[in-house]
Specification:
The protein has 691 residues and is mainly α. The protein has 30 helices and no strands.
Amino acid sequence: MTDTHRAPADEPRLDPATMELDEAKTRELEEKFDSEIRFRPLAPLAGRLVGGLLILLSLFHYYTAGFGLLPEMEHRGIHLSFVLGLCFLVFPFTKRGYDQPAGGSLLRPLGIAWFDWLLAAGAVAAVLHVPLIPLDDLAFRVGNPTTTDVILGGILIVVLLEATRRSVGWPLPIIALVFMAYAIWGPQMPGLLTHPGATFPQLVDHLYLTTQGIYGIALGVVATYVFHFVLFGVFATRIGLGQLFLDCAAWVAGRYAGGPAKVSVFGSALFGMISGSSVANTVTVGSLTIPAMIRLGYKRHFAAAVESTASTGGQITPPIMGAAAFLMIEFLNLPYTTIIIAAIVPAFMHFFGVLVQVHFEAKRNGLRGLRPDEMPDVKAALRRDWPTVIPLVALIGILIAGYTPYMAAFWGITLCIAVGLLNPRKRMTIWEVLDGLRDGAKYALAVGAAAATVGIVVGVVTLTGVGFKISFIVTSTAAEMAGYVGAILPGGLFDAKSLTLLFTLIMTGVVCILMGCGIPTTANYIIMATIAAPALGILGVAPIVAHFFVFYYGVLADITPPVALAAYAAAGMAGADPFKTGNTAFRLGLGKALVPFVFVFSPSLLLVVPGFTWPDFLIAFLGCIIGITCLGAALSGWLLTRTQAWERLVLAVAAILLVAPEIYSSLIGLALIVPVLIRQMSARKLTPHAA
């Protein structure tokens, strides 16, 4: 049953035309609200120089994806030299630089301070030094760095931290500095954290001359996979695939209670298939859904929170996922198709968790769905935009056929350009193609700098072995907590091993969320995968399950204050309070916070783990659905009708018990729901329009 109705004369009507994407507007919004692609004002010549370098970076990756990657160090070095050099040209030293005039002067050639030119040149020289060393000579110098190596390595560390500070903020560079200090002052560390320590030349040698540090896996994944898929997402959106997805989402979900909010969730899920960026997803879909939600009656901060929370799911939605998914390929040595299959159910659960709370909120506030005259013509949309699906279908097909992800991205990009140039309904010019190449490279700057900085953290972990020490501390603490709790619980309800794992998961999830308060999602995942995932491995959790756990919780970084890039972007578009939006988005995200616990205790939920069975999957899937619904009802205050305080408490407890490791706890959780349902059904009879 739909929730449309005949509107009173004074009720606002939503024009279907307002659900059409304005590409220029969305790009403007993204540059305004996403600090990672917001560039300082540039003089015309500097703008052409930066634009040309960005296009050249995209062409380098496009060519190597289709015709063969360069040797590892060379490929990563060229990528990082572009990234760091451009960072100093486009990101100012302080935020005041964004307000300075674009004109140049003697101390600011082409509008860029002289020391930024110097830092850019120093970064390029320091980065390219290592790839230019002959491989045999480099192998000899690892462990025996020359004075030049130490000096240039020290310069690279300094400029890398500064580039990262400018592009993503202070928290990540501070974390890297703390880890470097730990590496040097190891003998002074307490207890299990003590280690022999490293001299500064030894530390630079490990971080600079090996693939265990700055030139490590994180940078390699960004330079080899992430860049190409981001570029594909840019072109897929430009040729009209994003608009087709939004039209389909409106047709599927718009007619139901709180229509635009549900369009936001479905549209973000579909758009997430071609965009792994939370902010890009937020401003593109949100430019249409946020105003519609506000006009329909949603509070501004809630409308912004809905869009930002749904949009974070783009990072875990196959086939185009965020950088962390590509990192799993290297960490786990698995094909990308395996990662895609494993991500299907977690991605579904993410959007289901948001949808549940959106539905309950709409019912609690009596918000209507879209009327037929407010809905887009989906048949016309399919006739108009069906060619835009070709690149996505081809990309998925090439991945399934077993080719490398970057080869799939190469053909996806090629087909996007072909469709754009040949489609008479929405034809791209060659200048628009170049514009897409430039915009695609913009996303590489901040994530590239962050990935290289995370390489410092990973390098210190491999140099000192601190990851295993932290894992031991975490599991030992969890075992102690399990002993205390097990002593007071009824006998046989939980065994010691399950409780230890449960507390380890809780601590890991909390740390993921706290880390997300200060650093981007990708950096959060890499650090937690390096430090926390081994703790889960000690307790027998399969590697892919452990990595998906920290990956899933890391996604919350984009809606976790005080960073919350996606939430703050949506708040700016809605004219809402940013902090209030962030808190509401975090609450909406908690509706699916149970999911990682489910697939740890029931790995069949990931579909590709050893020992998968359909009965195990169905039990876990249904338990997860019920648990998410209960938690969503507890958080929103509505189930079949408005919930009372005791019902919210019971539903929250039931949700937790449903994901606990023992069948007895799940049965208790189901039993707790029964009196709530009885009371809700009774109350619903008294208010027949409540549900």
